[in-house]
Amino acid sequence: MPDAISITVNGASVTVPSGTTALAAILSTGASTVRRSVSGAPRGPLCGMGICFECRATVNRRRHSRTCEILCAPGMDIRTGDCVRERVDG
Amino acid sequence: MASRSANFDILVVGAGPAGIAAACCASESGARVGILDNNPRAGGQIWRGHQHSDANPDARKWFDKFAAAKIDFLSSSEVIDQLENGRLIVQSIDAQSIDEVRELTYKNLIVCTGARELFLPFPGWTLPNVMGAGGLQALVKSGLPISGKKVVVAGSGPLLLAVAAHLREHGADVRLIAEQAPWHRLVRFGMSLAFEKTKLAQAFAIKRQLSGVPYKTNCWPLCVNGDDKLESVTLRAGDRTWQESCDYLACGFHLVPNTELAALLGCELRAGFIRIDENQRTSIANVFAAGELTSIGGVDLSILEGQIAGYAASGQAASAAQLVPQKRRLDRFAALLRETFALRDELRSLADAETIVCRCEDVTLSRIRHHSSWRASKLHTRCGMGACQGRICGPATEFLLGWKVDSIRPPIFAASLQSLAVAAAAHTQEHLMLNEESR
Predict the structure, then answer these.
(1) Is the Cβ pair B135, A17 closer than 8 Å?
(2) What's B127's domain CATH number?
(3) Are residues B138 and B208 in the same domain?
(4) What is the pLDDT of residues A9-48, one digit of tens each?
(5) Is pLDDT at A86 greater than 50 in this prediction?
């Protein structure tokens, strides 16, 4: 694979072509669930363009990263499935 | 995390077709031009993946211009707040510089934040593998393998055809395209395209790519079935109801404008869009708007509006004036789109009592529908108070319940505490300085 990038998704090594987003890398492992909703239901991406926040996961230990907006970089560590309630209002 | 600032004569927000055209035209004046986008690359949604391709001549032309012009491109960046007119707080969402916050100043701002898909709730729409039509296309463009996957494309609008053609080109087994608009309106739409050579050519190209894929009009999804992920979709066309098994449902009900930033700045809206004059100027003198947030009119109109805004904002009035007449013809296309793909009433009753409307907070229709307004429901149920800040459920409740989404509050994108701290510090600094001056 030309310009292949090695990353880890939930601890497993994954190799993707350069230009792949973190979200596409997660789904290319066969997963369809990226996070759990506040009531624990499985959720996957909806908008694909940084609006809906359904694809958020932990990227390089940064929680709630919108994985559709992040390009894979060598050594990136992606973890999915956090079901921590998130509040953004003040 | 560092806080840096940068100053621009012209700042453009959104690097889709309108933003790229605006930045290129503004830079012809010699002004210092900056453009920012939340994506890692320029192109927006419609030109996503075309940066290094010759497939779309228009995209190629503008990407080349953009690369040759002297323009600062700030990728993976989004505006979270305005300090005052001319000063914006911007955060990075790139993995390498996440949470880095900077202040950007401008003399004139051109807002080109585009549109998103309208998502309507129906039973099962929250299951994984039910996505937007443009959403699935964006995912495929960013590396999702789709070859051999069964896909149903549903909803409304010309985007459905473009998406289906694109997915098929990448090896997807597109089972069906379900368009909710009635056949007679689409025929009228097709007839009027006959006078638009380029749009007709695009339509024929797509038709060739889609040969053999059923295109059903008067057809829409009723619900999706599956436990942990989508297994099939139940569709309705006329009196007929049937299940179509699929790996993905790509479903969007045309587009809604991303008006949040312009609204935060105080720009007036008209019928849900940012109100502009013929030079693309909003109700705020040094803020211009171009592209889909002023009307949903397709890429040609977006480019033209971007050009006009770029020229007008940089004092090139004659160049702007020259383009204005061309806009009228494209405005007619926007009106035609609106009439053709107007949503049918049946879609208002797709969601049942237990259907989740607000995906961020898992709020069901039964919990919100007895409230009188968006605001009341928000206060009582947290509908619209999650991470997306009502961007998905807001337009849905406007359609379902006739609510008006108001009260845009900063930060307009979920911001980290660090970002907020920097923004707050900047506000405080300002306050202290004003106090010093008044002494």
Answers:
(1) no
(2) 3.50.50.60
(3) yes
(4) 999 999 999 999 999 999 999 999 999 999 999 999 999 9
(5) no
- DSSP code per residue over B124-161: TTTSTTEE-HHHHHHHHHTT---TT-EEEEEEESTHHH
Contacts of residue B125, defined as CB under 8 A and 6 or more positions apart, other chains included, come to B119, B224, B251, B355, B356
Q: In this predicted model, which residue has the larger pLDDT, B180 or B332?
A: B180
Looking at the fold, whether B8 and B85 belong to one and the same domain comes out as: yes
Chain B interface test: which of A5, A15, A34, A53 (most B C-beta within 10 Å): A53
Q: What is the pLDDT of residues B240-288, one digit of tens each?
A: 999 999 999 999 999 999 999 999 999 999 999 999 999 999 999 999 9
Q: Residue B418 falls within a domain, yes or no?
A: no
Instruction: Report the C-alpha gap between B265 and B308 in whole angstroms.
Output: 21
Give the number of domains in chain B: 3
| Percentages of chain A per state (helix, strand, coil), in multiples of 5 | 10, 35, 55
Residue B435 lies in a domain: no
Range list of β-strands (E), B325-426: 356-358, 363-364
Contact between residue B9 and residue B108 where contact means Cβ atoms under 8 Å apart? yes
Q: How far is B97 from chain A (nearest CA, A)?
A: 11
A50 CB neighbours in chain B (<8 A) are 38-39, 78, 93
Kindly state whether residues B150 and B274 are assigned to the same domain: no
B124 shares a domain with B110: no
Cα angle: B181, vertex B183, B188; to 5 degrees? 100
Per-residue confidence band for B205, with pLDDT thresholds at 50, 70 and 90: confident
Report the alpha-carbon distance of residue B300 to residue B383 in Å, rounded.
36
Map out the domains of chain A with their CATH numbers: 4-79 (3.10.20.440)
Residue B64 sits in the same domain as residue B173? no
Tell me which residue of B117, B40, B131 sits closest to B391, measured CA to CA. B117
Above 70 in pLDDT, residue B9? yes
Residue at B415 is within a domain: no
Closest CA to B412 of B276, B272, B279, B266: B266
ipTM metric: 0.92
| pLDDT tier at B94, thresholds 50, 70, 90 | confident
Q: Please report how the helices B57-68 and B298-313 are oriented relative to each other, as an axis angle in degrees rounded to 10.
A: 20
A38 touches chain B (CB under 8 A): yes
- In a domain, residue B103? The reply is yes
Domain boundary pick from B253, B281, B312: B253
Question: Which residue in the set A37, A51, A54 is minimally distant from B362, CB to CB?
Answer: A37
Joined tokens for residue B386? 């999650």
- Least CB-CB distance to A46: which of B93, B132, B415? B132
More confidently predicted of A2 and B189: B189
Residues from chain A that touch B384, judged by Cβ atoms under 8 A, are: none
Same domain for B140 and B177, yes or no, is yes
Domain hosting B131: range is 119-253
Global confidence as pTM: 0.93
